[in-house]
Amino acid sequence: MLLTITYTGENASDLGYLLFKNPNRPQTFELNHGKAYVFYPEISAERTTAALLLDINPIDLARGKEGATSGGLFEYVNDRPYVSSSFMSTAISRVYGTAMTGRADAHQALSDSPLELSATITMMPCRGEQGKLNSVFEPLGYDVKYETFVSDENFPQWGESKYVNLTISGKVRLRDLLKHIYVLIPVFDRHKHYWVGADEVDKLLRIGEDWLPNHPERTYITGRYLNRRKSLVSIAFERLTETDTTSSDILSETEEKEAVKNLNTQRLNSVIATLKNCGAKKIIDLGCGEGRLIKQLVKDRQFTQITGVDVSHVALKRANERLKLERASESMLERVNLFQGSLTYKDARFNGFDAACVIEVIEHLDIPRLVAFERMLFEFAKPPVVVLTTPNREYNTNYANLHEDDVRHSDHRFEWTRAEFQNWANKTADKFGYKVKFSDIGEASEIHGAPTQMGVFTLCV
User: Which of 178, 194, 210 is a domain's end point?
Assistant: First the structure.
């Protein structure tokens, strides 16, 4: 991952004094997750560029050193060592910490002056959010340019890459440029390598005190920087409104989160009602996550055998804790079973159930893997009933914090319109001998439908 900062102007080589890094001597810094290198690819009196290059050790990440992101395959196959993610923000603080304070000793006047600066962030995560780059950086006084790519030139149908090369340019103080980048890289990085706790609120408000309270995208910036943790976001908003009483955006954010919470409840209730109506007793929850559906199923004695499957051992650990299986009775342990497995491979353990639930899971699969998923579920496991839910992309326009082409979760590979979902479901049902009925979950819009769409597949006999 690479960050370059260029100063164009009189005595441009003085950039080295402001950064406290000698242009004539490359430097290396040890980080907990790898190394950072500072060097100057160009030095002249008119134009000087400083480069910060990070070399992240993927083996260290997988083995649980600082920066590890536990979660099944993601531990070993991920983009963390190669893109400008939250690791870059950590390196900026470590390497350019003095420059961020604005202290420049004999060159203090230069540090206090706006300079013609530009910064290029290479391979910055930005899935479907290019428009946000403009709305976030432009109010801070930058011209914004970014270079996009296709995911794979050999498979253009996969669409655009979720990474961009971002360049911002403007007449700003160096300390402000560094602070802006430090905060805003984690805003666009949805897989932060560090725990977001209460100290991150203090850090955000301290570093953003000069610009965040009046920023038109402060709601988006604050929510994303704090990983949308409701308690932390509320604390941050409360402190922000001490200096700015405009709260309409905050209200809409709160209302939207409450709507999402209610939707989750409605979704689970709809699935359980469907299972009860079809008389199913033995249930398998494919992609069970942290066990929210299973926790509700165990309350109903109709369901005599409940199995949860997920690819992530971390999710299964949390499901185990949610269900309190460590302290459960023998009868509970006989009734509930959790195991790790993939939804794209044939597995004999998936067989023999009355109904399979696939709740908000299919959109996490890569499109090329859908065929394998279809065969695993409808051809090999072949349960009499399949209950499947997925987001309705058309409804996203009703969410204040989602823009055109945004998806609801960073790990969603796609989201279908109602027509796209029904087309896929009908073709799949016909192919494997099922019939399918559709219904909506959540408060429906006359134009855009409901937020969640559900298909119930029934095996033809």
Answer: 194
